[in-house]
Design a protein that fits this description.
The protein is an alpha/beta fold and about 260 residues long. It has one domain: LigB-like (Protocatechuate 4,5-dioxygenase, Chain B, 3-Layer(aba) Sandwich), CATH 3.40.830.10. Helix content is about 30%, strand content about 20%. The chain contains 9 helices and 12 strands. A 6-stranded mixed β-sheet has the order 6-2-8-1-12-9, with helices on both faces. A two-stranded parallel ribbon has the order 3-7. A hairpin with a 3-residue loop joins strand 10 and strand 11. Helix 1 packs across helix 4 and helix 5 crosses helix 9. The protein is globular, with a radius of gyration of 17 Å.
């Protein structure tokens, strides 16, 4: 008899600027190290801040296109293609797994930069099937955490749950200098969130607007924060949530990453 596969970790990645797809820096080095250290996934379910919808959708393409959902960046970025296969079978399973939520299958979306800018580093061969699950912008944070709870079972089947966004994400206040220091409100909110993650205080993270005066500035709109709740929703009793990457880019773009996995030792 073969032994069951170990439960795969789940990861939240702060993807930052799309240009990270082309760069080698401390953040992309961290994503690359994560991809090489995890057991190889059978498939990836990605929840990206950049597929923010009315209703819940899943990509059902057999060959999802690479979506360049941005403007004004260098031409080489528009030439990036991440040609990972999709998985209509996994899309079917997600629709069943997340019931009674009505998950609609979509052929009109593919892999946006929240997904591929990370995966080009973590899994550069693009040989693992990837589906994206959209974020229903009409629903409260507790709804998204609840979907994460339902996704948790997929981890036992070798499927990587990957959230992509940013705990602190305020484009209106960026400083166009990669060495810019983060303002106090950004550092404070990031530290509060990390403290809650370490303490397993998911209720406080769901009610993130109560995490200090900086919450309004750190999360002016929720789409980049919500993928974190999907990942934390998969956390099981006895598991820990590690913080392998931290920092800020352009002052107000948080780069903190979180990996949920069984405790070591």
């Amino acid at each position: 008899m073969t032994s069951p596969s170990p439960r795969l970790p789940a990861a939240f990645i702060a993807h930052g600027s799309p240009t990270n797809a082309l760069e080698a820096n401390a953040y992309t080095d961290g994503w690359r190290a994560l991809g090489s250290s995890l057991p190889r996934p059978r498939a990836i379910v990605a929840i990206s801040a950049h597929w923010y919808t009315r209703g819940t959708f899943v990509t059902a393409n057999a060959t999802p296109p690479t979506i360049h959902d941005f403007g004004g960046f260098p031409q080489p970025l528009y030439e990036v293609r991440y040609n990972a296969p999709g998985s209509p079978e996994l899309a079917d399973r997600l629709a069943a797994q997340l019931g009674p939520v009505g998950v609609q299958q979509s052929l009109d979306w593919g892999l946006d930069h929240g997904t591929w800018s990370v995966l080009v580093h973590a899994y550069p061969k693009a040989d693992i099937p990837v589906v994206q699950l959209s974020i229903d912008g009409t629903q409260p944070p507790a709804f998204h955490y609840g979907l994460g709870r339902k996704l948790a079972a997929l981890r036992d089947d070798g499927i990587l749950i990957l959230g992509s966004g940013g705990i602190v994400h305020n484009l209106a206040r960026v400083v166009w200098d990669h060495a810019a220091q983060a303002p106090a409100w950004a550092r404070d909110f990031d530290e509060r969130v990390r403290s809650c993650i370490a303490a397993g205080d998911h209720e406080a993270l769901i009610a993130y607007e109560g995490l200090g005066d900086g919450a309004r500035l750190a999360v002016p709109t929720p789409e980049h924060y919500l993928p974190l709740l999907y990942v934390l929703g998969t956390q099981q009793p006895g598991e820990e949530a590690a913080i392998p990457v931290t920092g800020f880019d352009l002052g107000t773009i948080g780069m903190t990453c979180v990996v949920v996995a069984a405790r070591q030792g």
